[in-house]
Amino acid sequence: MPMTGPLMSRHFASKAKWAVLALPWLMAGCVTPVEYGDIPHSAYVAPERCNPTAATRVQQDDRPFFFVTSRLPNCLTENISLLHHRGDKVRYGRFAGPQKATEETDEDDRSISLSFSESQRWWTELAGQMQAADGRVLVYVHGFRETFYTSSRDTAQIARLANFTGPVIQYSWPSQGALLKYPVDETNMYWDERNFRKFLMQLAQLQSTKEIILVSHSLGARLVLPSVEYVDRNASNGDSSVISNIILVSPDVDTQDFERDAAEEILSARRVRNDRRITVYASLNDRALSLSDDIHGYPRLGRPRCFDPFEAADLKARNLPERCYAAQPKYAEAIDKLALTIVDTTAISRGRTGHSNYLLSAPACRDFAAVVNGERKPPGRQATHLPHVFVLPAIPKDEKPDHLAICRRNQ
User: Fold this and answer.
1) Residue 250 carries which DSSP code?
2) Which of 181, 278, 336, 346 has its CA 20 to 30 A from that of 43?
3) Looking at the 3D structure of the chain, how many domains does it have?
4) What is the pLDDT along the chain (411 residues), one digit of tens a residue?
5) Edge to edge, what strands does the sheet with 389-391 contain?
6) Cα–Cα separations (whole angstroms), residue 301 to 59, 135, 388
7) Buried/exposed 131-167: b ≥16 CB within 10 Å, e otherwise
8) Is there a domain that residue 294 lies in?
9) How far is CA 342 from CA 62, 94, 198, in A?
10) Farthest CA pair distance, the chain
């Protein structure tokens, strides 16, 4: 029976919607895949400065930040750079934050001052800095569509924003830094899980480590969560409680998967009693996660869409926002500590995608900085009908905060 009238309209409207959503991926099929390039990868890493040894003579490195990477480096040019390919091994080094851009500076022309270190020397230097900071260390894991430049910029901003005095480590996996390479980024992120979990295990078991603040953005949460579970299961000393403050910003993670596995395992009663907690920053206005939601079919942890229409209808009937969040672990009520806290930034979302409010919107920046520094309930949050969910309210019309100055502190 042919479709007519409203039925046909709904049919073609649905088709049009999915055509628009699928357009980037259809376009991706028309662009060239990840190519090997014109230079053998072994040539990129052949110079000695790509592979320092314990015997390598080095000067004191005054670059303020640490990095660990599985990206392929290019050591053939005057300034070492990190490419979007997978590297031949995990490398360790130091880097300086990017210089403030000028109007004449193009994104492609920006570079990061970095150098590689022999691994044992790197761990020794890191331990020394941690001892001077009461054993605190911050680890940042970037998300989708990042280059080493953009993730280094964000790492430096996080350190300034939180006024973090301990060592800061960027873990850089081979994201392609391109909008149409999301499937490649997913593939590389999963490929790199073994490398990251080994690094996290070694950091957690370092004698100098007393507290790890673990921050991930977007797709980086899918690298972080299973790695924390791995350390929890395999720590030789039986104690992984040094991984205490886990912050998931705009996490591109299946909400139900998080509820079933991650929250139950990572936030076990014993670990929560030892001060383990997870803070999630979420926004219904996150366009990047909206697309991921459509691609994967189920809601993302960082975007509280209601999958169940009956649940949404019930919220509406109760005059509550139609937003559905990950549930607090069931045992949490018996523990006098919040295991999971969700901060909804929908009302103060900024930027083209609403995917990085923690570095763009003044209220989110303030809240994020406080959480990094250990505050459990920073001022400015509003309670909701759920005890573990808070919202950052809309900024009053008569207030015009300088988002740039607040979020890019001391730059």
Assistant:
1) S
2) 181
3) 1
4) 444 444 444 444 444 444 444 455 544 444 558 899 999 999 999 999 999 998 887 677 889 999 999 999 999 999 999 999 999 999 999 999 887 654 444 554 578 999 999 999 999 999 999 999 999 999 999 999 999 999 999 999 999 999 999 999 999 999 999 988 999 999 999 999 999 999 999 999 999 999 999 999 999 999 999 999 999 999 876 668 899 999 999 999 999 999 998 887 899 888 898 899 999 999 999 999 999 999 999 999 999 999 999 999 999 999 999 999 999 887 776 677 789 999 999 999 999 999 999 999 999 999 999 999 999 999 999 999 999 999 999 999 999 999 999 998 755
5) 114-117, 81-95, 65-74, 168-172, 136-141, 211-217, 243-249, 277-282, 340-344, 389-391, 382-383
6) 45, 31, 14
7) eebebbbbbbbbbbbbbbbbbbbbbbbbbbbbebebb
8) yes
9) 37, 33, 28
10) 80
Strand pairing report for 81-95 and 389-391 = unpaired
Distance CA 31, CA 184 (A): 13
The DSSP output letter for 254 is: B
Dist CA 161 CA 358 (whole Å): 10
Cα angle value 359/365/366 (rounded, 5°): 165
In angstroms, the CA 238 to CA 236 distance is 5
DSSP β-bridge partners for residue 86: 71
Exposed, middle or buried, 317 (CB in 10 Å: 0-12/13-18/19+)? exposed
Containing domain of residue 121, as a range? 14-100+110-407
| Closest-CA residue to 243 (of 281, 279, 210) | 210
Residue 9 is assigned to a structural domain of this protein: no
Pairing type for strands 382-383 and 389-391 reads antiparallel
Distance CA 55, CA 151 (A): 31
Q: Tell the residue number behind the tokens 């579970």, with chain if given.
A: 229
Tell which residue, 160, 216, 177, 159, has the closest CA to residue 82. Answer: 177
DSSP string of 370-407?
HHHTT-SS-TT-EE-SSTTEEE-PPPPTT----HHHHH
Match 């409010």 to its residue by tokens: 357
Distance, CA of 333 to chain centre: 28
Please indicate, yes or no, if residue 33 is contained in any of the structural domains.
Answer: yes
Name beta bridge partners: 243.
Answer: 212
Closest CA to 58 of 138, 117, 134, 125: 117
Q: Confirm whether 1 is domain-assigned.
A: no
For 209-257, the three-class secondary structure string (H helix, E strand, C coil) is: CCEEEEEEEHHHHHHHHHHHHHHHHHCCCCCCCCEEEEEEECCCCEHHH
